[in-house]
User: What shape does this take?
Amino acid sequence: MDKMPKWADVILTPLISLVLAMGISALVILAIGESPWVALTTMVEGALGSSYGWGFTLYYATNFIFTGLAVAVAYHASLFNIGGEGQAAMGGLGVALVLLNIPLPHWALALPVAMVGAALFGAAWAFIPAILQAKRGSHIVITTIMFNFIAAALLNYVLVNKLRPVGSMDPASARFPESTNLPALTDLFASIGIEWGRNTPANITFFLALAACLLVWVLIWRTRLGFEIRALGKSEPGAVYAGINPVRITVIAMLISGGLAGLMAINNVMGESERLVLNAVEGAGFIGIAVALMGRNHPLGILLAALLFGFLYQGGGELALWTTIPRELIVVIQALVILLTGALDNMVRVPLERLFLSRRRTGGAKG
Amino acid sequence: MNIKDSFIAIIVLAICLVWALADGTAAQQGIGSALRLMTPLLLACLAGLYSERAGVFDIGLEGKMLMAAFTSASVAFLTGSAWLGLAAGIAGALVLSLVHGLASITFKGNQLISGVAINFLASGLTVLVGQNAFGLGGRTPSLTGAGRFNPITLPFADTLRDVPVLGPIYSGLISGHTILVYVAFALVPLTWWVLFRTRFGLRLRAVGENPASVDTSGVSVTRLRYAAVAICGVLTGIAGAYLATALSAGFVKEMTAGRGFIALAALIFAKWRPWQALFATFLFGLLEAIANLYPDLDLGFVTVPSMFMNALPYILTVVILAGFVGRAVPPRAGGEPYVKER
Assistant: This one.
């Protein structure tokens, strides 16, 4: 066997990529005349140094868990779903339509209904690219990109012309009924007498995200459907030979993917803004790509990568507040992570493989 | 060229004709605006054409244009010369092209992921460096005078103005654009000639369809693909410079606003062919101009909101991709890194 051990593949390569991305970012910060050390300590202090920082970090991480899982499920079927942004935006529309039109007396009742709305709308937005890929061979990367733009235009139209309350200038829907507001994590802590994360948007959707991680793990590695998805992803002719219907699996994988992306809306639309605003997703759909790549498409990896990006996102906001470094630094780090873990993967992996190979050879010679 | 291939051209000309008959002055203004708006799309579309015909998919057109817009506006502001700005724009886009080439040719990585990364890299770096250099929240200071490409009046434009029909078309539509608009249009026949009438073009197309056969005949697949990616960089560089130093007067954060993706859509619409690319980008330029001029277009029986016009290029591309109106088949080896047999 001339491959490196599994732990090196799963843990070492993403870590090296991350260190490289951080290193290049540090050089960029140096180049614009700032101190990388100050930047790092500001970010750590701002994102992890207080329960306030953690409240935001966990809130962002919740978004990224959903979009990361969405990318990962499609990726296991060897489909690159760039449409998380649009699917999450449509999920928000689903949440808004449900909460504004169905009277729901309590959040515990509103939550499952809104989840159905979010997942259905997200899945529906993934359905057309999926069926076109499966039946007509239209490249899913291009169609999902196009659907992101179509979703943005559609939401713009709906918010300006349909959902905007009379007399409001703001392209946003009316506030959702008070009774449907989700409990924030700070309320949960307060109920057991701990003061934690006042005025932060982290809410109980975080636990839903953790549950989603577990469910996706069960789905991919412990069910027949998950096996079929992975089989199709590894080899379509092989899957067909094994009696798997590629059209069916492609569509199902994309529906699950779109549904997961749509569920993000429970966190940002129902949990945080409590109304539907323009551009509510704020790029979280794209960060899901970085999260899934970094997490090696495994729910545990995605959870950790989402926490990392949550930290970066909140830390980036703090950077912009306290230093002259704009928060776009995070976009650069995100780009470098995507580039190094996704596209320049071989640059990191091949030398590492050689290293392990040569070590094994010399080890063998000694023994 | 058969009737099916000239489908887009006929639609575009029909729109122009109907518009001109309905409201002559508005049509002249609108079509002129469409020509200016389609120029970056056309340049980026031709850029993608070279790259994808050589088998390297590029969804990073947007990022390269954005980077070029920023470097060109910065250098044009600092030196006061639009031409030096153009050179800087080309250099900026070429750097990102090199990254894309390294990822997708040398390291045989995923070309789509590399493209996504390049878009984010440009989006972040332009603001990061711009804020640091100019402190205007990611904008560059406004360009004036020679820092911009200014409209040029073609010869006899004024004397021919009063000739019926042809006069307004020549002096009102064709004359009075910046040099880069004419460059973009001249690149269409040039691209056609390079791709279909030169040895380089034949090899470039072959490397996108069947790289192994090119390799067998002793031509370097790597070198050809790098050449294509570099041409793509130069053209997106011109496109970005046009946006920042001709269409507007300086760089604004995220100023490409999805144009790289519309160019990608036009490329699919044109089925990876240069003349069709001209008409596809013209169509999308017209849609943008119409959406700008008539925010709520009243067609009598239905009112079309501007959001629908803005989304129309994407919707049309999905329809084309679905294969209901002619089938768009990409170059066969597109997206696949070439691995030499051992």
User: Anything to note?
Assistant: Residues 107-136 of chain A form the longest helix (30 residues). Chain A has one domain: 35-323. Chain A touches chain B through 48 residues (CB under 8 Å).
